[in-house]
Amino acid sequence: MRIDILTILPRLLDGPFADSIMQRAQTKGICKIEIHNIRDFSADKHKSVDDYQFGGGAGMVMLAQPIVDAIQALSEQTIYDEIIYLTPDGETLNQSICNQFSLKQNLLLICGHYKGIDQRVRDHYITREISIGDYVLSGGELAAAVLVDAVVRLIPGVMNDETSALTDSFQDALLAPPVYTRPADFNGYKVPEVLTSGNFKAIEDWRMNEAIQKTATRRPDLLEQYNKLTE
Ligand code: 6GU
Predict the structure, then answer these.
(1) Ligand 1 pocket residue status of 116, Cβ below 6 Å
(2) Is the CB of 111 under 6 A from ligand 1?
(3) Which CATH number is 183's domain given?
(4) 224: containing domain
(5) Which of 35, 56, 81, 107 has the smallest number of Cβ neighbours within 10 A?
(6) Using H for helix, E for strand and C for coil, what is the string for 72-90?
(7) Is residue 136 part of a domain?
(8) Total count of domains within the chain
(9) Residue ranges of the alpha helices (H) in 63-168?
(10) Which of 42, 61, 41 is nearest to 51 (CA)?
(11) CB of 137 sitting under 6 A from ligand 1
(12) Ligand 1: centre distance to CA 82 (Å)
């Protein structure tokens, strides 16, 4: 998979992909992530990337020209399956969307700032608009990092058994059960006995029951979905 990201703040994306699973995915050659500075595509002599909005009102709008020139330049090298704009008024990201994206070859992500990007870019170039939740970030970069992390870890070969995506919360529509490690007695707080029993059937039943209980109290909406899936 190849992921290109357009941003006016490339340094914000230096950190998130430099360690652990994201780094491994890149060194293994499974995923290539490239960050591009939108300002480099500005045709303006001051390299400006934003301007006042037509009709008045507070807040700047990101210019169409640098973004569209960047999309066109990158599209000469790569055919994108999706051109994704990160925006709080987009479709809310979930595991199902992440699964879909993980099956794609090439993704182009566009991070907005200020009041957002000129609507004409959204109308004519963007194929998908994604939000990561009902709160407002100062820009799309952190949202892009969240999306890339959630997608890349699903690509076959990125994770080992230890970090298997299959036992995650949400992958089977239930929240994950509690986990414990040594010591079995920590300052008098004991691990549930069943986990040290060696009875694998009992352990599996306990985990399933805990997952259902936790989902019922924290996310009844998810449990309803789960019950429909397993009917
Ligand atoms: Cl994708 N962008 C911004 N700026 N804020 C957000 C968001 C995206 N998703 C949730 N809040």
Answers:
(1) no
(2) no
(3) 1.10.1270.20
(4) 167-229
(5) 56
(6) HHHHCCCCCCEEEEEEEEE
(7) yes
(8) 2
(9) 64-75, 95-102, 119-124, 141-152
(10) 61
(11) yes
(12) 18
Closest residue by CA, ligand 1 atom 3: 137
Instruction: Using DSSP bridges, classify how beta strands 185-186 and 189-190 pair: parallel, antiparallel or unpaired.
Output: antiparallel
pLDDT in tens, the chain (231 residues): 999 999 999 999 999 999 999 999 999 999 999 999 999 999 999 999 999 999 999 999 999 999 999 999 999 999 999 999 999 999 999 999 999 999 999 999 999 998 999 999 999 999 999 999 999 999 999 999 999 999 999 999 998 865 566 656 666 789 999 999 999 999 999 999 999 999 999 999 999 999 999 999 999 999 998 999 888
Do 139 and 215 lie in a common domain?
Answer: no
Residue 162 forms part of a structural domain: no
131 Cβ inside 6 Å of ligand 1: yes
Query: Is the C-beta atom of 87 inside 6 A of ligand 1?
Result: yes
**200 and 100 in a common domain:** no
Q: Is the CB of 136 under 6 A from ligand 1?
A: yes
Domain end residue (candidates: 94, 117, 152): 152
